[in-house]
Amino acid sequence: MLPSLRSICALLALVALADAHGYVRTLAIDGKSYKGNLPREQQPGIPIWQIATTSPVTSTTDPDLACGLGAQPAALTVPAGPGSNISINWASTEPPPSYWFHNVGPIMIYIASCEGTPCAQFDRSAAKWAKIAQAGQKAQFSKDWVQGDLTTGQPYSFSLPDNIKSGEYLLRPEIIALQGAMSGNAEFYVTCIQLNITGNGNGVPNATVSLPGAYNPDDAGINVDVYSTSDLGYVFPGGPIAAFVSDDGAFTFVSI
Length: 256
Known about the structure:
Largest sheet: 6 strands, mixed
Number of helices: 1
Number of strands: 15
Order of helices and strands: HEEEEEEEEEEEEEEE
Shape: globular
């Protein structure tokens, strides 16, 4: 049987994008901008963890799913506050440097308290990640994804919880590129950013996950053919966005 036109298009997209990798190029917190690190080029004054390569994590059980391949702590922890507006811009290194290259799959943002330890010294494997933002298809049955906006140089913007408790945190932006997911080749582009959140908030997340641990290769949002099932509503992996509630000990945390 001859392959369908849709299957051929999916294969061509996978071949064209196979070598298009990337990293966080810039970060802005309430309008103050910070540069990202290219692999193996750690610089002072940057709060973004340095990854060893712009290639993606490709396994849901890889310890590097926490902060990126071979990631090393940043040289700087930068200030933020409850409700701070954050914008993140990703870049592709194929050809270097250019806008982000992939256009299908979710963008998700997680945050984890460093639990009284400076984030540069915190054990990322012990992090309890709370999802605070996510974006997928522009409409439930749309073939256009918010990730596609990155290919024109637009950043992804979101706000920190407006009542988040003060302390040092790791912020974890993640792109999952799904152009090869139909053959089990989802790509996870992640990094960590060191924040020192100050203010009068006392909110803590009502649900957290471990990474790795929260994703399964058979999850509906990871094992998916976005070209033949784009008419279906996307199911985000990692559970729902967490609510930040008063830290009064009156409720039970849920950790996945």
